[in-house]
Specification:
single chain, 32% helix, 4-stranded antiparallel β-sheet, alpha+beta
């Protein structure tokens, strides 16, 4: 009984900041990074694993890393997904404004369970690229609670 209550408290404690974070004003949609994250959230909501590789830089994230990222992010039976940006720092390997390291929290619900994941995305756009040209150049799952 105590273990069940502790697990419930942990899940509620992790999910609560997602709601609080979701209430903060969103960056303008002209922000290319925001456009990329919104697109990723839509793919997670619709379980569109096949469209995810289009978001990856084909020169940076390939093979096993791309497959692992897809498996980490997507659940075949999700009923709801929410992605919240928690932190954004300039990517040192990119010109100013053309790359960021982003920490996100992702909540995915299924009919039987839910999971909360913290993930790091390194994202870049080509020099002079528009809001739709941003791509994921590195991704890492930092934590996962299911």
């Amino acid at each position: 009984m105590r273990l069940g209550l502790a697990t419930l408290a942990l899940c509620l404690g992790l999910a609560l900041p997602l709601r609080v974070g979701a209430q903060t004003p969103a960056p303008p949609q002209t922000d290319g990074l925001r456009v990329l994250l919104t697109r990723l959230e839509r793919l997670l909501q619709t379980n569109d694993r096949d469209a995810f590789p289009e978001m990856l830089s084909t020169t940076a994230v390939t093979g096993d890393q791309a497959l692992q990222a897809t498996d980490d992010l997507f659940s075949y039976d999700s009923t709801r997904a929410v992605l919240v940006e928690r932190d954004r720092q300039p990517l040192m390997s990119a010109p100013p404004g053309d790359g960021y390291r982003v920490i996100t929290e992702i909540l995915i619900e299924t009919t039987a369970r839910a999971r909360v994941m913290t993930a790091r995305f390194d994202v870049r756009r080509p020099p002079g690229g528009d809001a739709n040209s941003w791509r994921i150049v590195d991704v890492e799952r930092l934590t996962l609670v299911q």
